[in-house]
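1st attempt posting a full record on here, be nice pls
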Amino acid sequence: MKKLLSFLKPALLLGVSALLMWYALKELDFEKMWAEFVRADYAWVLVSLVMGVLAYISRAIRWQMQIKPTGYRPSLLHTYNAMMIGYVANLVLPRMGEVVRCSILKRTDGVPVNTGFGTVIAERIIDGVMLLCAIGLTFLLEFGRIRAFFLGLFSDKYNHVEHSMSSLYWLFWVLLGSVALVLFVGLRYLSRLRKNAYFRKAVNFVKGMLKGVFSITKLDNQALFWGHTIFVWLMYYAMSLVVFYALPATAGLSWGAALSVLVVGSLGMAAPVQGGIGVYHLLVQATLLLYGVPKEAGMAYALLAHTSQTLLVVLMGVLSFMGSMLRRHDADIPLTQTKAAHHELNR
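the predicted structure (as tokens):
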């Protein structure tokens, strides 16, 4: 049953992505879209890929800096390899990559999974703050164009919530009562719980995770850490911008348009489907329509930007996986030789 569920979940998400892509492409003129690809200047796509590589290296350095205050010092290569393999895992099953990369770092450098996962949570919080800053800047600079888009994007959800407010109130009180009951039982039987092995393991896991989360407060070089954070997001922005120049229909768009695409594209990539497939394309196409870009050209841009970066992640992830396996194999050889030499010495 577990094997069936483990297969059905990614298959279902992939089916959702395929359905969204079909919806995004079904009314487009493929001849016009193909003409956009034919006339594209792929040198700009290559520039965006170089920027992507720099962003991933910078993220790996930043993650390594987060881990060091926890008492573990993984090498930059191991940190980078674990991160890229995790990104590939996310293309198979969303959010699985976070666990995968922490598990790999546990194997290579002994970093506990809970501690590593805590640093990943902190990383996600920081990225969320950076995205909120980008959204604020976008509203400030491009308010006239994107106001209607965001209102339309969230109005249906808001109306649904408004109509279901009574149900939400009930849900809130049920959750609050459940939390209060758990706290009451926990405090009443705390002495017994402390003797339970599973409870102690759960407490230790949470402590290790919080140690990873708050590692950013004990960094050796705060300025360098935040410098890498800003650099990563500048690269993300620049990647959105330079792909504009690859297509005639988007080559004349402003820097503000690239900021809008970065924000909306990031929201699409955060969707719980493999690599944001379908969601990213729909949102970016709709955003470019606000700037007068035809549907076919907007979809061509989305396909170029998303597909090139996805292939880059797959390539770098596969190379990292191969490198990780080779290094593990090489590390096993001296150990075997040492055991053999020790055996001969004892004889």
